[in-house]
Design brief:
Layout: H1 7-27, H2 40-64, H3 85-92
Length: about 90
């Protein structure tokens, strides 16, 4: 099996693509009210590519059993923790 067909190569490739696309988005970010240097079509293509990369990364993680279903938490976002009543009763006893 050559280097270019191993899962590790694909993971590295997807990570590099994701990081590059995110960097392009960050580097071209403009202040509100200013014209964005990229066309709306190009912005949509970047978003579509990111969605494809992330979907494939998730698929690889699920196949390898390393998918955690974790999502980013933003500092201005309220988080809600849920727990069962039984767990609460165990803690109180």
């Amino acid at each position: 099996m050559s280097d270019k067909t191993t899962p590790e190569f694909e993971v590295r490739l997807l990570n590099a693509m994701r990081k590059t696309l995110i960097s392009v988005a960050k580097d071209t970010m403009t202040k509100p009210g200013l014209r964005h240097p990229l066309t709306e079509n190009t912005q949509k293509m970047i978003t579509d590519c990111l969605n494809l990369v992330i979907s494939r990364q998730t698929e690889i993680e699920k196949q390898s059993g390393t998918h955690t279903k974790m999502k980013p938490v933003y500092t201005d976002e309220q988080t809600v923790q849920s727990f069962s009543i039984d767990d609460l009763k165990k803690t109180l006893n």
